[in-house]
Amino acid sequence: MRKFAALILFNCILCFNAYSQADKQYYVTAYKEQLQMLTGQKPVSFKRSVFLTENAFYSNKLSYQAFCQDVSNISVQLKAMIKAKGIGKYKTAPNWATFYFMTDTIPANNFRPFTYDFEDFTGSKDWSKMFVTKLLKTHSGNCHSLPYLYKILCEEIGGTAYLAFAPNHCYIKHMGENGQWTNKMVDLNGMDGEVSGSGTKKDPYVIKANYYYVNGSLSDKQVTALNDGVASYNKMGGKDGVEIKNADGTKSYVKYSLSASGVKDAQAAKDAAYGDKFTDKGGTERFFGNIVGEGASGSGGDYGSATNRNVNFNNANIKDGIDNKGMNESRLLEGIVIHEIGHNLGGEHSDGTSTMSQITTNNIVRDIGPSSSYISYPGTSKDFTKIIFDRRDTRMQDPNARVLQPGLYTKQ
Ligand SMILES: [Zn+2]
């Protein structure tokens, strides 16, 4: 019960903080019902509680019946998956089914896994990005909505899942078959870079990741930008690679070996991306293949986005940037490629590198002469290389990293 209490309050506090100006009455009503759950006057329902909070944000305009129907439609699929696999006797079967339904590209989810939306993942521009109701609609969510939906679905079919909180962080815990607690990152797979080599000048570390696109799905300029962006990484540091100073004063050399290639159709892209895997030194299977395509992240102003196995160009915003904001098309496209690959290899916006900075217009005001503006586009950099490299193999423990935590992992 204490866990539920904390959870429900967490839910409320999030919304009150962000929307103190909103009509408080909706929140008061939602809170009263949640309080009834906490005081035993009503049965505790995590599903209902999440709905109440989100509904208050939307001024009580959502339908609980429709929400329950969405959840129930998925639970039918989950039960069928468990039956087909013949694992109904295991108490973690609901966890398995929910996880695969949410993360894999399978007929049960109409080949639409739920993905992590990298841009505006804190919901600072659009608070509804935190919501399960949004996730159900768009299949893209963040470290708040993904674990919430996981818990709701899992419980819907009789499983158990607990949410665990760390700073800026929320993930799922469940009891394994052996009775031990298991942490589950809801969107674990995809988007990592493989590190091999020993780091000497003769045998530098090599960062490997592959990018596939379906022939004809990108414009010629996007294909050129993809190749140029990849080349920009690969040629960093010249023939020896990027020289990095280690904490103990020694030097390491790091080279990039990224590739971009066109394949015949979506299935071939998926086969290629899912086929690029390796085992890291901690024994976890990781993937370094990615699919490049087109699509909007759903967060408004972004030119590109990255989800758990995809890098996308947002064509509508790119057009707007070129037509209305004076952006240079080839520099913008290449900048998007460099930035999204940067996410892929473990870069964060907060790193302060040119690779991970977002595209911005800078105004210069001169005392004498006309003021002007220039646009800065992301580029590759040595600083970026040092940061992601120093972060290798530690992403799972980094409390400030996002739940998806793509990054570099050393090959076993
Ligand atoms: Zn970004």
Descriptive account of the structure:
Residues 1-22 form the signal peptide. GO terms for molecular function: metallopeptidase activity. Keywords: Signal. InterPro entries: MetalloPept_cat_dom_sf. The chain has 412 residues and is an alpha/beta fold. The protein has twelve helices and 17 strands. The strands form five sheets. Strands 6, 7, 8, 9, 12, 13, 14 and 17 form an eight-stranded mixed sheet that branches. The protein has a three-stranded antiparallel sheet with strand order 3-4-5, with helices on one face. β10 and β11 form a beta hairpin. α8 crosses α11. The longest helix is centred in the N-terminal third of the chain and has 22 residues, at 64-85.
How would the blueprint of this fold be written?
Elements: H1 2-18, H2 24-38, H3 46-57, H4 64-85, H5 93-103, E1 115-116, H6 132-138, E2 140-141, H7 145-156, E3 162-166, E4 169-175, E5 181-184, E6 193-196, E7 205-214, H8 220-234, E8 242-245, E9 251-263, H9 266-275, E10 277-279, E11 285-287, E12 289-294, E13 304-306, E14 310-313, H10 315-324, H11 329-344, E15 360-364, E16 372-376, H12 382-390, E17 408-410
Parallel strand pairs: 1-2, 6-17, 7-9, 7-12, 12-14
Antiparallel strand pairs: 3-4, 4-5, 6-7, 8-9, 10-11, 13-14, 15-16
Helix pairs in contact: 1-2, 1-3, 2-3, 4-5, 4-7, 5-7, 6-7, 8-11
Zinc ion binds next to helix 11.
Keywords: Signal
GO molecular function, one term: metallopeptidase activity
Organism: Mucilaginibacter pineti
